[in-house]
Structure formats: C-alpha cells, structure tokens
Write a structure and sequence with these properties.
Elements lengths: L4 H6 L5 H13 L6 H7 L5 H14 L2 H10 L6 H14 L1 H7 L8 H14 L5 H7 L5 H14 L5 H7 L5 H14 L5 H7 L6 H11 L5 H7 L5 H17 L3 H11 L2 H10 L5 H13 L6 H7 L3 H16 L14 H14 L5 H4 L8 H14 L5 H6 L6 H14 L5 H7 L5 H11 L7 H8 L5 H11 L4 H8 L8 H14 L5 H7 L5 H12 L6 H5 L8 H14 L5 H6 L6 H10 L9 H7 L5 H14 L4 H11 L3 H10 L1
Helix pairs in contact: 2-3, 2-4, 3-4, 4-6, 5-6, 5-7, 6-7, 6-8, 7-8, 8-10, 9-10, 10-12, 11-12, 12-14, 13-14, 14-16, 15-16, 15-17, 16-19, 18-19, 19-21, 20-21, 21-22, 22-24, 24-26, 26-28, 28-29, 28-30, 29-30, 30-32, 31-32, 32-33, 32-34, 33-34, 34-36, 36-38, 38-40, 39-40, 40-41, 40-42, ...
Length: 659
C-alpha cells in the first residue's frame, strides 16, 4: 500500500490521536519514506504515539530501522525516545544484536550502557565476544552490566575473564563477577570462588555461587558459612548445601561432615528458616533437616505440611527422620490439624516401623476422613493382623474412598482364615457393606472364598452382584468362568456388563462361550462389549459370530463389531470389513479404515486411497491414519498427494506427521 501524502502531515499534527493514526498508517504502508517520520514519532511526547510508532517500525524492520533506533539512544533530552528505542531494539532480536555488537566501543558511556543492556536482554550467544570486550570499558556501569549478562548467557569463554574480575580492586564489580560465575555453572570457577569466600566483601556472592555450582568441594566452606554473623549468608549457605547434597553421590559422607561441623546454633537457625516467607529457603532448610535426620525439627516441619508450596518437601524430610526412629513423630498423630495427622500417618506407614501399628489403629476413628484413609493405607502396608478387625469397621465409613482404602488394606492383611468371618459378614443388612465384603473376598485366596462370592452374585442388590462379579474375575479362571455363567441372564444390565468386562479380561478361549451368549443380550452396550471381548479370546469362531452384528441397527454395536473383526486378524473378517468402507454410517466407515490396519500383509492401499474422497472429513482423516500406520509401499506417494490436495488442516497435519 502506497503512503498517502496527507499521512506525512498528520504525523506532526497537534492532535495526539491524529499522530497515532498516522504512525499506524505508516507501519501498514510499503512505500519509501515511512521510517524517518516513524523514528521521529518514537520521541513523541504522547506515550500512545510512541507505542504505535515502535509497533510500526517493528513491522517494517531492516537495517534502516535498526540504525535509526540506535541513533535515538543518544537523545539526551528525551527519555521517552531513548526508552522506546531500547525497547524496540530488544524486540528486534538477533538482527539488532549483530548491529549493536559493533557499537560497544562508542564514545558515549550512557549509550554504551544501553547497548550492553539491549545485547544482554536479547541474549544471542554470538554477542558474547562484544560483552567480554565491554568488561574493559572505562565506565564501571557498563562493565557491571556486561558482567551480569555474561552470567546469564552461560558461554564458556566468559569464565576466565570473570574469574579475573574476582581479584579486581573494584569490590562492586568483583561482587557481580562472583554472582555471574554462579549462574554460568562452570566448574572452573570453584577454586577461585572458594578463595573469594574468604574475603569478607565477597563472601555473600561467593557462597551463593558455590551453592549454585553444586560441587561437594564447596561443602566445608558452606558449613563454615552456617556460623556467619550475617543471616543472609547463612541462608544462602543453606540453599547451597541442599543443592550440593541433592546432586552428590556420597550423600552419607556429606551428612557425616555436617554432623561433625554444625553446632546447635547452626541447626536451630536452619529450623528457624522453616518459618521464613521465602519458599525456596524453606524447602532447602527442610531438605537439609531431613538429610541429616534432625529429630528436633519434626514439629516445625509438620507445620509446613499445611501449605501447598512446602508440603512435599516437608513430607520427604519427615520420612527421612522417621527412618531413623519414629518416636519424634508419634506426637504429631494427635495434632489438632487433620492434614498433619493424615500426612504423619502416611509417613509412618512408609517408614515401615511396625511399632506404630498401635498408634495408627486409633486414627481409624478419627474425625477427618482423609486421616482415616491414610491410617488404613499405612496399616495395610505394615501388614499387622491386629488391624484386621478395626479395618473391617471402616467398610461402613461415610466416605467411599475411605471404604475403598480399607478394602485394599484388608486385602493385604487378610489370610485364608478370614474367609469364614467374611462369609458371616456377607449376611449383613447393609448392601454397601456387602459390596465391600465382595471386593474383599476377591482379594482373599482361601477355601470357601468362591462359595461366598457365588452367594453374593445372587444378592438382591445389583451393586453387590456387580462387585461379586468383578471380585470373582480376579481369582481362579476356571471358577470365574463357572461363576460368570450364572450372571449372563442377570436382570440388571450393569451386572451383565460387569460380567462381559470380567470375561474379556480373562482373554482365554474358554471365555468365548459365555461371551457368545451375551452378544445376543437385550442391552446394546452389553452386546457391544461382548463383541469386543470375544475378539480377544482368540476363538476361531469369533469372525463368523461377529459379522452378523453388522446388521444390528444400533450404531455402537455395529462399530464394536467392526473393531472386533479387525482385532481377530482373521482372513474371514477381511472381506466383511472391506465391504463396510462404503457403509452409509460415517462412523462405520471410520472404524473400517482403522480395522484394516490389522492386515499389513494385504494390499489395501487401493481401498484406503478411495476413502480419501469420502464426503466426511473424519473418514478421510481415518483413512490417512490407516495409510500412515500401514506404511506399505506406495503410502508415501499417497500421503504427499494428500498434502497437495486437501485444505483441512488436521488431515494435512496428520499426513505430514506420518511423512
């Protein structure tokens, strides 16, 4: 678009909105002469005009724009122009950085500072030599900026120059150099930083940098820093110690050194850091206290369990402490906060000390559901049979997730001798309780368990019968098959569906017969599930039995039949599937395309290529996916043709992924 002559006049209009509109129009034009007026507008007294001018210049780009913006950095009397120019150059990225690298030696110190800051913010690694050159600038502010950005760039060639600055008489510059070496992460800096840590003025950045480098060589220096009179240095030492220990191979050696060196005051200071505001400091302190298994920190650590940002770190630390003896944590089981009681119960169970069983059992009647659940899980993990009767009480809990956890725990604890007790409990009046008993019986391998489940499969409540079916499927295959035959005619479709899923999960030829019966079920979802299950049995009759389901009027059953026919991989199934790639239902056509992938030995590209002309885009997508997955000779040419001919983004994207 050519520039209207009036626009050049508008850029100098008295009205700011008119000037802004002119800056916008100049940015959208492709005519010559737009850059000069826009550069002038970058110094406009109205911020909206400056913003629009910058956006327009960024849209235009090129050497003229970069050079013009650089000149604006010298606008001593117009801070708005300087700042807007710096912002625009930063957004121009590498193109601006390459130009500005040649300007680090310019005559004006303020401009050189701008140049270093812009190069540093762009963070193009090719700019490192220019920033290293700026380390010798006569202006201390320029040098300090160069130091800071070299640390962020993390280029190896900056290490030696920065090490050299550690010994400069300019303490501020040396301070920044130490910090930058920590960000760089190069191990060559360790020895110089260890030396710098002995300098009172450089101790803080050196300690922080050594912690960031994470090398065990710094461990003694950071331990010594725990006694520093300056609290911030001690805090940085804690963070560094945590990082070093996390990454160390000889963790126990570091712990031993800590215990020899750190006095009570140092330990108390670390515990005190758990109450600070900074999350990074709290989590680092928690990590160290856990690593050294500091028992006196248990209560302070437990308080961190109440907050999302520290809960994980506190839990890990408390677990480490518990591994060294659970006694310091038992009192937390009576804490007024349910979150702390629950977390402590979980930690004690994971620690594996069986002495805590007597302390966990009372928590099964705790007022908080998540505490009861945690106690049940830990008791199941610890495996003490004395918890069986108390856990049975949780099968009546008001919360389903607590009941489920109790069932799992009892499944870990209960032996064959419990079957008789469960048979008695299976007569309970509460159907939810009977349902839980069914689930539990399925986890207990013992004489009489099958008979209990067989009885529950005749329960008056469907939820109990369903639970019994699911439980039976987890046991002996022969008994499971025998039991399933009794429920294929159950009045509730949910029970019959559970039987189908259980039979399908067995994936054995013996499951084929009951699944065949269920393929004629009155409920379409049962029929569909039975079809899918039959394919997995490996029955040689599967294909011939599945084919008639394609005459079923209910869509999900027909789709399941096509999918199941594909899974059989039977030669008998292939012509049936091919016949349905032109079905009136697009969902059947899609399922047919996907099913053809199960026959890689056959030449099916012709059929699938024909589906690329289907009127439904989702069918065309399914055909592309099938062609790509088959990967047969000629697939690539077909997929390249798809890229050239289709307008649908998702179809093209899929074809491109396979190519």
């Amino acid at each position: 678009m050519a520039i209207e002559r009036d626009v050049f006049g508008m850029i100098s209009d008295d009205d700011p909105e008119t000037r802004r509109q002119a800056a916008l129009a100049l940015g959208e034009a492709d005519g010559a002469g737009a850059v000069g007026p826009l550069l002038k507008a970058v110094g406009d007294p109205d911020w909206r005009v400056r913003k629009t001018a910058v956006e327009s210049l960024l849209r235009i780009g090129g050497d003229e724009v970069v050079e013009g913006l650089y000149r604006l950095l010298s606008s001593d009397d117009n801070a708005g122009a300087r700042n807007s120019a710096a912002e625009a150059l930063t957004k121009l990225g590498a193109a601006a950085s390459r130009f500005l690298c040649s300007k680090v030696g310019g005559p004006d110190a303020d401009v050189r500072k701008f140049v270093v800051d812009i190069i540093g913010e762009i963070a193009d690694k090719d700019s490192a030599p220019a920033l290293i050159t700026a380390l010798e600038d006569e202006d201390v502010n320029v040098r300090a900026s160069a130091v800071e950005y070299l640390g962020r760039l993390k280029v190896p060639e900056a290490v030696e120059p920065l090490i050299g600055l550690l010994r400069t008489e300019d303490q501020w510059l040396a301070f920044n150099a130490a910090a930058a070496l920590g960000e760089l992460g190069d191990k060559r800096a360790i020895a110089p930083l260890l030396e710098a840590a002995g300098d009172r003025c450089l101790r803080e950045p050196a300690v922080e940098a050594l912690g960031m480098l994470g090398d065990p060589e710094a461990w003694p220096v950071l331990l010594d820093a725990l006694s520093d009179p300056v609290p911030v240095i001690r805090e940085k030492a804690i963070k560094g110690l945590a990082r070093i220990h996390m990454e160390a191979s000889d963790k126990q050696g570091l712990v031993d050194a800590f215990r020899r060196k750190a006095d009570r005051d140092a330990v108390d200071f670390i515990i005190g850091c758990l109450a600070q505001e900074e999350t990074a400091l709290k989590t680092a302190a928690a990590y160290i206290l856990g690593a050294v298994r500091e028992k006196s920190a248990s209560e302070a650590l437990a308080n961190l369990l109440l907050y999302d940002d520290t809960q994980e770190a506190a839990g890990r630390a408390l677990l480490e402490i518990a591994r060294d003896g659970v006694e310091p944590m038992l009192f937390l089981l009576t804490n007024e906060e349910g979150i702390i009681r629950a977390a402590t119960a979980s930690i004690l169970g994971e620690a594996g000390d069986h002495r805590v069983v007597n302390f966990l059992i009372p928590l099964l009647t705790d007022e908080e559901g998540h505490t009861r659940r945690a106690a049940a899980r830990s008791l199941g993990r610890l495996g003490d049979r004395k918890a069986v009767e108390p856990l049975l009480g949780l099968l009546r809990d008001e919360y389903g997730d607590v009941q489920d956890e109790a069932v799992l725990a009892l499944g870990n604890l209960a032996g064959p001798e419990l079957v008789g007790r469960l048979k008695e409990l299976a007569q309970d009046d509460d159907p939810s309780f009977r349902k839980n008993i069914a689930g539990l019986v399925g986890m207990v391998d013992g004489p009489g368990a099958y008979e209990v489940l067989a009885g529950l499969m005749k329960d008056e409540e469907a939820e109990v019968r369903k639970a019994a079916v699911e439980a039976l499927a987890r046991g002996d295959v022969e008994k499971a098959l025998r039991g399933m035959l009794t429920v294929v005619t159950d009045e509730d479709p949910e029970v019959r569906l559970a039987a189908v899923n259980a039979l399908a999960g067995l994936r054995t030829k013996e499951a084929a017969q009951p699944l065949m019966l269920l393929m004629g079920d009155v409920d379409p979802w049962v029929r569909a599930a039975a079809a899918r299950g039959l394919a997995g049995t490996g029955s040689p009759e599967a294909a011939s039995l599945l084919a008639p389901l394609l005459d079923n009027s209910y869509g999900p059953v027909r789709i399941a039949a096509v999918e199941a026919l594909g899974e059989t991989k039977s030669p008998e199934a292939l012509p049936v599937i091919k016949a349905h790639i032109r079905d009136s239902d697009p969902e059947i056509r899609k399922a047919s395309a996907a099913a053809l992938v199960n026959f890689p030995e056959e030449d099916l590209l012709g059929e699938l290529a024909g589906m690329l002309k289907d009127e439904d885009w989702s069918v065309r997508l399914a055909a592309v996916e099938a062609i790509g997955r088959l990967g047969a000779p000629g697939s690539r040419e077909i997929l390249e043709g798809v890229l050239a001919s289709t307008d649908e983004d998702i179809v093209k994207k899929t074809a491109r992924e396979f190519l």
